[in-house]
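Predict structure. Input: Iron-containing alcohol dehydrogenase, 394 residues.
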Amino acid sequence: MRSFEYFAPTKVIFGKDSHLQIGDILKKENCHKVLIHYGGKSAVASGLIDEVSGCLTDAGIDFVTLGGVVPNPRLSKVREGIELCKKGNVDFILAVGGGSVIDSAKAIGYGVANPWTDVWNFYLKTEVPTACLPIGVIPTIAASGSEMSNSSVITNEDGWLKRGAAKCDLCRPKFALMNPKLTYSLPQYQTESGCVDILMHTMERYFVNIETMEITDSISESLMQTVIYNARILMREPDNYTARAEIMWAGSLSHNGLTGCGTGGGDWACHQLEHELGGLYDVTHGAGLAAIWGSWARYVYDVNPERFAQFATNVFDIPCGLDFEKTALAGIEAMEDFFRSIKMPVSLHELGLDLDDQQIHELAFKCSYEDTRTIGVFKQLNMKDMEKIYTLAR
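Output follows.
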């Protein structure tokens, strides 16, 4: 195992109607003006933005609003938010929505607090932020885990580049008010895509080529089983509060660093491969991950089939015996069968993309930063490897 540091400073208030505490919570933050940042029309139509605004008004806290965040959040919206915050002397950002809204809020926080450079430089990793406006979160989807993480991913429309800022604790939310009932109105596709994202945040850290901690492996395997079990329940019972609560808390635990303790940080190749799909074709993140994972797994598993066999046995109860390779492949197939059972794609074609060789090459070229980097640690992948995985995923 690798030595590690674990830091999870976000205060979590979890349960029914927890979001209605927002006025009292913000009073304790001593903020003077808040940006309420949110996504599409559903947050307004459901009455959630009115509820949040009313709580702030009752608490005597001034605010401005900025909606319109889309999946794969855009740099142009971030820049709009930065200017709005500067003009209005905003000193706190409240993200009401899913991972896209939270990531956009983090980027705005970076941009306002570091006026000496353009915010996109933090996503190109040519600059490092030195500050961030404080951020609070009311999640409306269980997926990204951004409510407790130190990461943020933004898409630049100029070239359709989807990039993540360097991990930085400055952007970790101060608090997350987590009410599972706020996820009831999500379409089934978004709910199940979120479940895949949660699983992938765990698997990216799980599939490493070093000796890991038994306790970390056990937490990860249990978390994956919990998500798989409850994702299937939500296919039948979308208003099942218990299942929603299990998934929501799993989303936070999957991406707050807990499942990476002692694993050296994880692989993240699948996320890098999917980022190019999201940037170029605007696909739903979890669905894109489902479409690419099986091809990645079959391409790399023979580096350490024993690790994949452990996954198959401990997550899907597949007997191992002495044939690690057969068990590993059975585990990969079991995960794809699960994706199918929740109507997630297991190929680019099922994702709605029928790509030719030139388009595959473009994805690999962008993912490799024009053939200047490799990705992954389970098996390091160069541009040619990336091209082969995208091709297998067709």
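The chain has a mean pLDDT of 96.
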